[in-house]
Design brief:
247 residues; alpha+beta; CNF1/YfiH-like putative cysteine hydrolases; six-stranded mixed β-sheet; five-stranded mixed β-sheet; globular; disordered C terminus; binds zinc ion
Length: 247
């Protein structure tokens, strides 16, 4: 039993061999990676995925995506997205209102895990490029899972930020409602992915700021917020055993 974690599905269209996508909940404590993984991060990743090599980045709200292969170690480098096709690699990013984005090439070419807040929005396009260059991934074979993030209900921003966001990612990416301009990370990322040819995009229905199960920079505040850890492992991992156990 993994209390303190939720498993994020890939939508209603069942995908039995989809990568395991998990997110720690606020009750798990602070799972930050920066400047280096908290002790509990290493304990939990070793407990959940004992045979995998945990790879993480020093996240800086960029659109930088790195590839992690079997022999190299991207761990600890600066960047906000990771792609891999190595079955031994466990990808991790930490979030607190920013969106964890999971990509999976159903034709077998790899998977990606991205940290995508407003500054880094557009990183999904960079990940698709790197998956194509590295593994020959085709967008029509890729499925995307947009994990829990702050939603437009809670994401009021200055008008200037909303305007530039809408200019880059379309008018649905920023909305004026209840007296404030608000960003919509789901709309922005969906637009990016669809424009690149990705057919299957699923957004997990939760707002990290509204829902106290999650950690939230906005709700918890600058001085006291905690981070959640998103993990992406290949489907052959513990996830499959878990499914069999529930039958
Ligand atoms: Zn909300």
């Amino acid at each position: 039993m993994n209390r303190g974690w939720i498993s994020l599905g890939w939508g209603e269209d069942r995908a039995p061999n989809a990568p395991t996508a998990m997110l720690s909940l606020a009750c798990q404590g602070d799972m930050r990676l920066k400047p280096r993984p908290a002790a509990i991060v290493l304990e939990e990743t070793a407990r959940l995925f004992p045979s995998r090599r945990f790879v993480w980045l020093r996240q800086e709200h960029t659109r930088v995506v790195l590839r992690s292969g079997a022999g190299d170690a991207a761990a600890g480098l600066a960047g906000d997205g990771l792609v891999t096709d190595d079955p031994q690699t466990l990808l991790g990013v930490s979030v607190a209102d920013c969106m964890p984005v999971f990509l999976w090439d159903t034709a077998g070419g790899g998977r990606a895990l991205l940290h995508s807040g407003w500054k880094g929005t557009g990183i999904a396009r960079e990940a698709l490029k790197l998956m194509k260059a590295s593994y020959g991934s085709r967008p029509e074979n890729i499925r995307a899972l947009l994990g829990p993030s702050i939603r437009s209900c809670c994401y009021a921003v200055p008008q200037e930020r909303a305007r530039s966001f809408a200019e880059e990612f379309g008018e649905d990416a920023a909305v004026f409602r209840d007296g404030a301009w608000r960003l919509d990370l789901v709309a922005a990322n969906t637009k990016i992915l669809k424009a690149e040819g990705v057919l299957g995009v699923f957004a997990y229905p939760a707002c990290t700021c509204c829902d106290a199960r999650f950690s939230s920079y906005r709700r918890q505040g600058k001085g006291g917020y905690t981070c959640m850890l998103a993990l992406c492992a290949p489907w052959q991992a513990e996830g499959r055993r878990g499914r069999h156990n529930t039958i």
